[in-house]
Amino acid sequence: MDKHFTDFLAGEVRSRRTVLGLTQRDLADMAGVSERFVRFVEQGKPSIQLDSLVAVLDTLGLELHLTTRTSQAARTRAGAGRAEGGPS
Fold first, then answer.
1. Rounded-to-integer distance, Cα 35 and Cα 19, Å
2. Which residue ranges make up each domain of the chain?
3. Is the dihedral of CA 66, 42, 28, 18 positive or negative?
4. DSSP letter string, 6-56
5. Each residue of 15-61: pLDDT tens digit?
6. What is the pTM of this model?
7. CATH class in words for 3-59
C-alpha cells in the first residue's frame, strides 16, 4: 500500500476522532473493532482489513472514494484543452 495514502488516511482518522472527542477505545467500541486496529490505522500500518477500516470510517462519518489515476501529461493536456475552449 502506498505510504502517502496510509499516512494521509492515518491523519484523517486521528484528526476526526479527536474532533469528535473520542478515545481510541471509544472509536473501537463504536466501530466494532479492536483498539489495536484503531491504533494501527492511526499509525499508518499498511496491512489492515478493509471491512474493519470501512467500519471505522463509517463510525467517524468519513467515506473512502476511489478515483482513477491520471498521468501528469494527461492532466496537462486536459487543462490545455479547457484553456483553448475544448471540452471540460
1. 18
2. 3-59
3. negative
4. HHHHHHHHHHHHHHTT--HHHHHHHHTS-HHHHHHHHTT-S---HHHHHHH
5. 999 999 999 999 999 999 999 999 999 999 877 788 899 899 999 99
6. 0.65
7. mainly alpha
